[in-house]
Amino acid sequence: MPSTETVTPATAQSGTDDEEHLVRGYAGRLLVAVSVGWLAIQSGRLVLSPMLPAISADLGISDAQAGFAFTTLWGLYAVLQFPSGRLSDALSRKTLLVAGLGLSAVGFTAVAAAPSYAFLLAGAAVLGTGAGLYPTVARALVSDLYTAKQGRAFGLHTASGDLGGVASAGLAAAVLAYATWRAAFVPVVVVVVAVLVALHVWSREDYVVEARSLAVRDTVGRLLVGSRFRWLLVAYTLYAFTWQATAAFLPTFLETGKQFAPFVGQVAFGVLFGVGAVVKPTAGWLSDSVSRRALTVGALVLGATALVGVVLADSPAVAVAAVAVFAVGLLAFPPVMQSYLMDAFPDGSAGGDLGAMRTVYIGVGALGPTYVGTTATLANYDLAFWGLVVALLAAAGIVARVT
């Protein structure tokens, strides 16, 4: 007689496989599935930026309206990091992952079919909710599946988001050349639904849907009261502040601030994501055998040093080369630090604790573009990016002291 015992995140991942395979076996299948899902979600979200002029022209919306739609999407995405992780600890990873993928598919479809700004805004809200439910839970699942190869697994998984950034650029270029902007979301929805089905079939966990407390007070106590986690949260926030500011304004800095041709900014932006897709799994692999403290501090210092090179660059070739080195340092940080945190968090609350940290550092980090834009308006881009150099060095100092 089949067992009716509820399968929890802590027990569902233990299988008969003796080795932690990265692309085969139970763990490997789930790692590939959640990584492809993250690639698709990132592709669909990031493709909105290069297609924004076409979307605005088609729907007749202003820059302010478009900005509010982005704020809605990213705001919901940030807010839901904590509750998604906490609920995945209390219910099951599978429940939250499938819900996130389902809502993302609905959101992408609504955005693609939107006949007016109101429908676009509603689609962005659904998409932000679905996307917000997914990444923290996916990282918690990776932590469940891997121990000896956890750094490598985190590296491969986080690199899938950078591949999504590269894919979004190619997808936007192809769609705008041969079709309408709405067509860009068709392959995204197909892949998201395929991953949903794969997780439904492959995961050994049960679906669990019931009311559970978010235990906000307990989480705040673990992370902020008398804990080194509060300082690591500050460091990660400084990192996120720099990353989001750079991702938003690097092409504009090179074009407007340095008077380089627009093509230089486009190439540099592609290099940023392309290098990240290689660096993240490499850094994760190294973190399984090298001190994670040394890797994170070294990555942040390298990123800060290379960013100095970007600010001082007086030719396109030097600027792009400096961006490549900057990407090595900046994007080596997440897989190593996230692996460190998942090892340090209590087993029963790891998803919620990571989600709470992500809510804070993504939310506060979202102020990075505002900082750069405001500083560039009042002074210049050089001063704005010097501030980002200071932020990375401060983050490196904090990590060196508390880990």
From TrEMBL:
Transmembrane intervals: 64-83, 95-113, 119-142, 154-178, 184-202, 231-254, 260-282, 294-312, 318-337, 358-377, 383-402
UniProt subcellular location: Cell membrane
Gene Ontology cellular component list: plasma membrane
Domain of life assignment: Archaea
Chief location: membrane
Gene3D superfamilies per the UniProt record, alphabetical: MFS general substrate transporter like domains
SUPFAM superfamilies, A to Z: MFS general substrate transporter
Entry keyword set: Cell membrane, Membrane, Transmembrane, Transmembrane helix, Transport
Entry's Gene Ontology molecular function annotations: transmembrane transporter activity
InterPro entries: MFS (IPR011701), MFS_dom (IPR020846), MFS_trans_sf (IPR036259), MFS_Transporters (IPR050171)
Coiled coil spans: none
Domain spans labelled Major facilitator superfamily (MFS) profile: 30-403
Pfam families per UniProt: MFS_1
Keyword Transcription: no
Membrane topology qualifier: Multi-pass membrane protein
PROSITE patterns: MFS
PANTHER family attached to this UniProt entry: INTEGRAL MEMBRANE TRANSPORT PROTEIN, RESISTANCE PROTEIN MDTM, PUTATIVE-RELATED-RELATED
Record-given protein name: Predicted arabinose efflux permease, MFS family
